[in-house]
Amino acid sequence: MEHIVVVGASLAGLRAVEAFRREGFAGRLTFVGAEPDEPYDRPPLSKAYLAGDADRSSLALRAQGYDELDVDLRLGQSAHSLDVSGRTVGVGDESVAFDGLVIATGAAPRRLPTQPDVAGVHTLRTIADSDAIGAWIEGDARLCVIGAGFIGAEVAATARSRNRAVTVLEALPQPMVRGVGPVIGEVLARLHRARGVDLRLGVGVDAIAGDSTVERVHLVDGSVVECDAVLVAIGAVPTTDWLEGSGLTVDNGVVCDASLHAAPGIVAAGDVCRWPNEQFDGEVMRIEHWTNAAEQGTHAARSLLAGDDAAPFATVPFVWSDQYDVKIQSAGRFSGEDRMEIVSGSVEEDRFVAIFERGGRISGVLGFSQPRRVIQYRRMIADHESFDAALAFAAENP
Ligand SMILES: Cc1cc2nc3c(=O)[nH]c(=O)nc-3n(C[C@H](O)[C@H](O)[C@H](O)COP(=O)(O)OP(=O)(O)OC[C@H]3O[C@@H](n4cnc5c(N)ncnc54)[C@H](O)[C@@H]3O)c2cc1C
């Protein structure tokens, strides 16, 4: 293999580039990214950076620079097409030939079908998005957040920490109830209400209104939220439009095999990748979290170099979210339908660990400000321990 192209210059793509060099790949590396910035970290965009507590330079994913990677870094350039059999990627007017390709184009915020293009209506994915929302928070705006998932909840928490008026609208009866169930959904709701968020649950958005700047959000029940800025935080969709007609299978992400190959010589990693996770009996997953993107980027590079001998990427997904003074962490697979037990701490004190059961095994863990315990249960999930064994561990380690 002489020339590898990595499309998507963010976390997964960068970890792939670094892994190629670490594994001794000495050929040409081309790293193409649509954004003008060098790869940067997104989690602070809804937390410390948005709050003004971290500066732009601290976001860099590779503070030491790119010289030692000997990579042709092409920023501000988008790949618009892929020819799988011809082994080329279209970038601008150029057709870039490759021997190996990493697809790491991530995901982009989902928009409301009726989302108007007026000032003050935002989504959050990039530094520019965070700067725009930060300016509203700085300017004492009344913020309306649509969606109480991780990003909506984090922005609400950041805005409340600056004492701004925040309304959060959520269609479900509890925040993230499908993922975490009603008990923890209630804890999340209480967390935000106790800090002064006007959290409205089970409500639908009818329209976002305003002439040149947003002025209000109309709800399906006829009520109205007056506001100066709106954040639409209703999830993300994998960035696969540029792969249309390429011949790769795209179905809510780039469909890969267990070793992250989408086709011979082509791998995918990060938020854009869908693959069967052998850690969970081959359940097909697409994960939109930092740790997965980092680990998958590294693994995808190794897989590309290994070809037919590539190993499967088997993992226990891990995610964190910081809201106010609470560090929420979870690992594994679970939903609000699974059996759940609180095994240490107490939900009233916003400090607890919950574990989840599927098929007799511990399949997931979620902790509020209990990082050590979450890691311990994550290991039990990786080891396919029974739920009873996890309960016994909990009894000895409350
Ligand atoms: C505000 C925010 C907060 C978050 N907080 C957390 C957190 O607390 N914990 C956690 O676990 N995860 C968090 N995440 C998720 C985490 O940041 C993502 O999972 C991670 O960024 C995914 O990395 P990626 O490289 O797969 O994709 P991305 O980071 O989405 O990067 C994809 C890159 O590809 C580029 N691109 C797209 N199409 C093309 C094209 N055709 N040609 C060239 N380039 C292209 C994009 O511009 C982008 O730069 C957060 C995400 C956001 C947005």
Keywords:
single chain, 24% helix, globular, Enolase-like, domain 1, 398 residues, five-stranded parallel β-sheet, 8 helices, FAD/NAD(P)-binding domain, binds flavin-adenine dinucleotide
Let me know the number of strands.
27
CATH superfamily of the largest domain: FAD/NAD(P)-binding domain
- Quickly name the level 1 CATH class of the largest domain: Alpha Beta
Number of helices: 8
Which structural class fits the helix and strand makeup? Answer: alpha/beta
Form type: globular
**Low-confidence parts, pLDDT < 50 over ≥5 residues?**
none
What does this entry look like structurally?
The protein is of the alpha/beta class and 398 residues long. It is built from 8 helices and 27 strands. The protein folds into 3 domains: 3-108 and 236-309, FAD/NAD(P)-binding domain, CATH 3.50.50.60; 111-232, FAD/NAD(P)-binding domain (3-Layer(bba) Sandwich), CATH 3.50.50.60; 325-396, 2-Layer Sandwich (Enolase-like, domain 1), CATH 3.30.390. The chain has a 6-stranded mixed beta sheet, covered by helices on one side. Strands 9-16-10-11-12 form a 5-stranded parallel beta sheet, covered by helices on one side. A 5-stranded antiparallel beta sheet has the order 23-24-27-26-25. Helix 1 runs parallel beside helix 6. The longest helix is centred in the middle third of the chain and has 18 residues, at 177-194. 43% of the residues are buried. Flavin-adenine dinucleotide binds at residues 7-13, 32-35, 42-43, 45-46, 78-79, 104-107, 124-125, 151, 239, 242, 270-271, 288-291, 293, 319-321.
